[in-house]
TrEMBL record:
It comes from Pelotomaculum schinkii. Substrate binds at residues 75-77, 113-114. Residues 15-150 form the Molybdopterin cofactor biosynthesis C (MoaC) domain. Signal peptide: none annotated. The gene is moaC. This is Cyclic pyranopterin monophosphate synthase.
Amino acid sequence: MSELTHLDEQGQARMVEVGGKAVTHREAVARGEVAMRKETLELIVEGKAPKGEVFGVARIAGIMAAKKTSALIPLCHPLMISGVDVYFRPNYDRNTVEIEARVRVTGQTGVEMEALTAVSVAALAIYDMCKAADREMVIGAVRLVHKSGGKSGAFERKGEAAWS
């Protein structure tokens, strides 16, 4: 098990010092999903959800969340993010909307938390946009699937195929 970098020698929370780290291009990809009734998924895809166009609102919510991560997660550094993409993929076999966020930065620390936050808030926006039609939606499976750049190198979650 690797060292918990956000704890000092006494076990107290601390913000990691990144000043001596190399500036590199870093990317993180996270995914999650919102499970729902078949009828709710159809409303979303057909653009007939009660509050309007779901994917557009959720995409903006995810992008905004990535930019505000340091205000939400106490020990995250504020970053000059260079790009955020949020994608949605309806899965009719499972009655889910799958969400993927890709976040990029050229800096001294990674953007894993920004990608995870983008997915989480995009999922919450989908829930908010559709709760009048389906209060039983379930948000889940939020996970990091890829990271690159920095001293620790690349990470790829096994079994996660790339989205085209």
